[in-house]
């Protein structure tokens, strides 16, 4: 479904991705792991053409994305749940969910899905998003991604900065969503990544240094830990 080959991405002179190769097959959840600053977010930004690669190829269902505009990429069914919880702070929780739904006729069903997934949001449906706690904002950000009716969802560090109970709710929501959405999931929380993902890639110094089935590393935790600890 998604195939990166030899992807090289820069910020100015800073060479961040030095030839990334990875594949995501339809129906799977793939975790992208690695220490801070190795280029995980940049990989997602490269796919979305927010930071277009200078070299390499990114194919989605066989079609080249490099050279396209971000809105053209999104129109093909690629959704993004960004790390920094982008939402409309002056709009209410309900309004934030409604504007994330492509077809207004689907909005009520989308709200039910969002509120069933994260009951806390139902209680705060009329609150301004900007007034929510960090954890609630993360739930809203994830809910907005889940109701977007995307075929492939790029999810960036959904558990970052969340209390353990909320991490559990996020893991459940992602697992539920994975039943009908393919995902590329950036996640440093190893138990969460192993729980939700089918396969993983580890990035280090802008390149893939390990990959495999998550089942194999669940039995051999050290294999990933050495790449992930500082
Ligand atoms: N807009 C930018 N301009 C310049 N350098 C950037 C920019 N965004 C990221 N970088 C640098 O690119 C490198 C990779 O960043 P990236 O955010 O992709 O890493 P990451 O693996 O997602 O790490 P983190 O978990 O900290 O987000 C880092 O050295 C970072 O400082």
From TrEMBL:
GO terms for biological process: L-amino acid transport. CDD domains: ABC_TM1139_LivF_branched. Transmembrane segments: none annotated. Residues 2-230 form the ABC transporter domain. Keywords: Amino-acid transport, ATP-binding, Nucleotide-binding, Plasmid, Transport. GO terms for molecular function: ATP binding; ATP hydrolysis activity; branched-chain amino acid transmembrane transporter activity. InterPro entries: AAA+_ATPase, ABC_transporter-like_ATP-bd, ABC_transporter-like_CS, BCAA_Transport_ATP-bd_LivF, P-loop_NTPase. It comes from the Archaea. SMART domains: AAA. Belongs to the ABC transporter superfamily. This is ABC transporter ATP-binding protein. It comes from Halobaculum magnesiiphilum. The lineage of its organism: Archaea, Methanobacteriati, Methanobacteriota, Stenosarchaea group, Halobacteria.
